Amino acid sequence: MKKTVSVLFMFAGILFAICLLISNILATKIILIGSWAAPAGVLIFPIAYIINDVIVEVWGYQKARLIIWSGFAVNIMAVLFFTLALVVPAAPFWQNQEAFATILGSTPRIIAASLLAYLTGSFLNAFVMSKVKILMKGKDFSVRAILSTLIGEAADSFIFIIIAFAGNLPFNVLIGMIFTQATIKTIYEIVILPFTILVVNWVKKVEGVDTFDESVSYNPFSINQI
To answer: Which DSSP letter does residue 6 get?
Structure first.
């Protein structure tokens, strides 16, 4: 029996991967939001968490797991090809190698921190969203979305900043950066929440599904359930 492929699910997965790629490139610039300093990736990265919430809410944890690992694979591919482009000799007349390396070149430590933080935060976000939906019998999407994002973003920010910058920055600065990133990302979720609710309700109506993960395996590495 053939499985039907949801166009909306495919679109959500593509948009998720796009947000990840753009946020990683933007993260090379530090911006000021009010008096808070943060990587420019915070402008778009929270959208990936919102998409994660929508996927879990509509299609369930299994589909979110598929998208999270797909996003991870996209990130790995991007890193490999960015690295290849950096090491291939530049044309003699091209004078922008240093600028190119600044934008697309990252140290192994930064890359490892980013990938580990992404996996941990994304899976935590999906797990909390799925579990709390069951506990709350599908009610109060707003509460569930904010709670899952807060936990996922806090874990993501903590892991990334500690691994990437511990030993190079004072402890109080690290804590401040963790708090700033997690707070900005959660506020982002709250501000855009009315739109997210509209999207969730519309997708549920179009797809005709509202998944409850009653018997799903929450093992991130499970490949038996897709």
So the answer is: P
pTM, to two decimals: 0.90
d(CA 64, CA 53): 9
Query: How far is it, in rounded angstroms, from Cα 177 to Cα 180?
Result: 5
Scan for tokens 């300093």, then name that residue: 37
Q: Which two tokens stand for residue 148?
A: 């899952």
Whether pLDDT at 26 is above 50:
yes
Tens-place pLDDT, residues 93-124 = 999 988 888 888 876 788 888 899 999 999 99
Query: Could you give the CA distance from residue 99 to residue 88 in angstroms, rounded to a whole number?
Result: 15
* Structure tokens given for 5: 């492929």
Instruction: Give me the residues paired with residue 30 across strands.
Output: 39
Of 6, 38, 47, 73, nearest to 184 by C-alpha is 38
How many angstroms separate the first and last alpha carbons of the chain? 15
The three-class DSSP label of residue 37 is strand
